[in-house]
Amino acid sequence: MAISDPLKLVTNHRSLITRPRRLRQTEALRSMVRETELNPRDFIYPLFIRHGQGRTPIASMPGIAQLSVEEAVREAEKAAELDIPAVILFGIPAEKDPVGLENFADDGIVQQAIRAIKRGIPEMVVVTDICMCEYTDHGHCGILNVAPDGAQPRPSQSLPEGYVLNDPTLDVLGKVAVSHAECGADIVAPSGMMDGMVAAIRDALDTTGFENVPILSYAVKYASSFYGPFRDAAEGAPKFGDRKSHQMDPANVREALREAALDVDEGADMLMVKPALAYLDVIRTVKEAFPELPMAAYNVSGEYAMIKAAAANGWINEAKVTLETLTSMKRAGADLIITYHALDAARWLK
Ligand code: PBG
Q1: Rounded to whole angstroms, how far apart are CA atoms 55 and 62?
Q2: pLDDT of 218-231, one tens digit each?
């Protein structure tokens, strides 16, 4: 049936007192009532640093590369020019071993990068990731109860082979944090999900004169499959097994409150939820429980790779989808977002 006058279908239209569309009529009106605004000052830009020269592109993360120290300084300069206040550093060592000795070596790759970036761009906030997985030959986040070749069994309380020993790992994490602080790191960010890692690092920093170095704790970090591309980038995939004995079960949210509360008690200055996109409810829950602490969300490698892949196929608009995604993280309660899209997102926001 053809309708000659569509307005005839409308009855009662004058009774609509509330019309949310009134405030959506123009961009000017929409921007006046916008609740969440992304800003380059919200971003922390991750950098992967390796020995040698130049840039080594990472296939699963188009636009991201492993960088020499010199290239890392250049990349940090680009961030500074775009008003991005901070970078977070990940190192790929020259050699790996069961303990990850380069992780706290004075001439380690991250140590070199911290000094170079602070020398070149003093105002850039240098955050460092504190974990062992990129430095150990087995790719795990701590000291194992059995050496990778099966020799030298350690006392294990009948734990499974390859179990990450908690307390011996804490001593190493403390050393790494102090080593980074000595080079001028502004914030240290433990990511290994060891129990007591914030307390151990706080104690190590305080007893070496670094009581003013803040800790951004990866307090709520899930055993996620979204880290795949990062493990290519940082060459830190576990050689066997997985990280489920320390990272959280993706099904849990009440446990996130327990993890966050512990880290707050241990002296964390800032909290993080990771990954971000599949965990927006967790970001909101943790933010509501600890509104007084700044909170970061980690927009992880798999989230980045999915957008890049879909955009490369012409299936989505990269800029719009990226900004929409980052906005969702901020709307959920994140104050800061660690994102590989930081440079482009800052440009798109201009
Ligand atoms: C551990 C660490 C990881 C990420 C950040 N820090 C990897 C892991 O836990 O396996 C992942 C970040 C990403 O996927 O972008 N050093």
Answers
A1: 13
A2: 999 999 999 999 98
